[in-house]
Amino acid sequence: MNLETFFEKFDLFADCPNAVQKMRELILELAVQGKLVEQREEDSLPCAVSNKAICADVPFEVPASWIWTRLSALGDTKPRNTCDDSLKYSFVPMTFIPAGFGWDVRSEQRLWGDIKKGYTHFQDNDVVMAKITPCFENGKSAVMAGLYGGCGAGTTELHVFRPEIQDVYSRYVLIYLKTRGFIDRGVPRMTGSAGQKRVPHDYFANSPLPLPPLAEQKRIVAKVDELMALCDALEAQQKERETKRAALAKAALAAFAEAPSPQSLELLFHPSYAIDPSDLRKSILTLAVQGKLVEQREEEGDADSLIAAISNQRKSINAKNYSQVSEDEWFFDVPESWRWIRMGNISLQSDSGWSPQCLAESRVGNAWGVLKVSAVSWGVFDPEANKALPSGMEIRDDCEVKDGDFLLSRANTEELVARSVVVGRTPPHLMMSDKIVRFQFPSEIEKGYINLVNSSAPAREYYARNASGTSSSMKNVGRKVMCELPVPLPPLAEQKRIVAKVDELMVLVDRLDAKVKAAQETGARLLEAMVAELSGKVAGTGVSR
Asked: What HEC string does 67-134 produce?
């Protein structure tokens, strides 16, 4: 297979994450391995260059007409400039150093007297490479060109190579510095503390460099330019396609939201475009709690009689009452048969667990354990997320989780705080921690419906506004905030039909999700195989043929 075939088959793995980026990386790797352009018999390295050859610790084989050498043998790796202090020259901060290949370096003008000390020196045709993390890993490097006055200075976080032999083409050197192989081999060599790690000068100056004859270096650069332009075109084509697909997906979601029907539902799963499954799940939840997912039926009455029955039960147990939901608190308009009411006014009571000093490991068998907050954080109850209660510690039976409990996380990350689950079947002897809150609802309430409301985007926004805590890594939502959540309440029969419909649609979304992931995995495997074939490696082994 050749690169032309590779580009022609791009559509086969266009949906593979970072497909174009991987193609760019492949081009650079093939370039420095001598596999991008042909070798010509008339090309040869002059003796002055051949004498710089090394043969130890080279990472891969190169054509017979090439040599392995080092930057330090080909030029100055710590150059300094002599310029007029009163004249202006280029100043280049790190933000002006590009990560892509072939991108121009920007600069600003400053007096040489102001920048000659404390900065890195360079001039036109020098090759610069970022040495600090994450700039090095991101491939920030460039050939300096078009500098004001031909010289300049800039960020201290650069290594610089200034060629001193005519048979070294700076843009070819740049290709090697940008290869994923050179970068990956350099990462373990970095020194310093986290966030301030740097590539040592020795790695930059003395690492093996594969060097072809000058004429071939220039052919390689020209070919890389040509193929990178193709990658640019593919990337633009990919973005245009994604823009169109996103517009179609948005229109399909809008059509379904405006008039949910089998026809508009079918549009959501049309093969011509892909709706992100997470967006689809959010849309389904929103439509469900807005009363747009199933029809309202006159014979089912309205929510008033349901609320009255619940109020009588709450009076008999002296449950705390919360204020009515004012119209300006409504998240949206609801059907005539629905009512807005606070979650605390339709629940009978709420409680939370305790957090004794538990063992680090999970409980064994049906021994007593305390649930971690992660047991209720991800939409599905996870009884395995627990810590064992030390033997001999007093048991609190009132905190034990039962089948059908409605649980919320009181303390969690900004994304997960106040997430809820309805417990299905649960093993015995599991207690709530004090970071888990349990609500008990009367039979007039379908807990699965309340879970949908609590998981919907408007509820998530409500909790985000009312959560306490300064760090996004840990937020708290008090029980009072939970009780004051405005709930759009339909009649009980409609609550059940909504839950059933959501379950039905989520099965379809799960299938779509699996299909999307399978397509991405297939594309990734195909891309990996094609890259392996082109780079002359056995797929999955990294062994040269």
From this structure: EEECHHHCEECCCCCCCCCCCEEEEECHHHCCCCCCCCCCCEEEEHHHHCCCCEEEECCCEEEECECC
What is the Cα–Cα distance from 306 to 311, expressed in whole angstroms?
9
Domains in the chain, ordered, with CATH? 44-211 (3.90.220.20), 328-490 (3.90.220.20)
Report how far residue 412's alpha carbon sits from residue 396's, in angstroms, rounded to the nearest whole number.
Answer: 24
Find the mean pLDDT for residues 245-273: 66
How many whole angstroms separate alpha carbon 380 and alpha carbon 422? Answer: 8
d(CA 154, CA 141): 13
Residue with tokens 């301030």: 196
Residue type, 5: T
Beta-carbon contacts of 157 under 8 Å, excluding residues fewer than 6 positions away, are 94, 120, 130, 131, 132, 135, 198
Amino acid at 48: A
Q: What are the two backbone dihedrals, phi and then psi, of residue 76, each rounded to the nearest 5 degrees? A: -95, 125
CA-to-CA dists, residue 291 to 148, 308, 324, 326, 331, angstroms: 66, 21, 21, 19, 13
Asked if 369 contacts 388 with a C-beta cutoff of 8 angstroms, the reply is: yes
Between 19-32 and 170-178, two packed helices, what is the crossing angle to 10 degrees? Answer: 130
Closest CA to 516 of 274, 332, 239, 318: 274
Q: For residues 26 and 527, is the Cβ–Cβ distance under 8 A?
A: no
Angle, vertex CA 396, rays to CA 394 and CA 400, nearest 5: 135
Rounded CA separation 64/516 (Å): 46
Cis peptide before 442 (omega within 30 of 0): no
- With residues binned 3-state (H G I as helix, E B as strand, rest as coil), the percentages for the chain, rounded to 5, are 40, 15, 40
Task: Measure the N-to-C terminal CA separation of the chain; round to a whole number of Å.
Answer: 15
Token readout for 20 is 């174009």
| Residue-wise pLDDT tens digits, 414-443 | 889 999 999 988 999 999 999 999 999 999
User: Could you tell me the CA-to-CA distances from 304 to 301, 327, 340, 454 in Å, in that order?
Assistant: 8, 17, 10, 21
Rounded distance between C-alpha atoms, residue 510 and residue 526, angstroms = 24
Which of 458, 176, 157, 213 lies closest to 331, judged by CA? 458
- Cα–Cα dist 490/339, whole Å: 7
For 310, 469, 483, the CA distances from 315, given in Å and listed in that order, are: 9, 35, 17
Q: Tens digits of per-residue pLDDT, 112-132?
A: 999 999 999 999 999 999 999
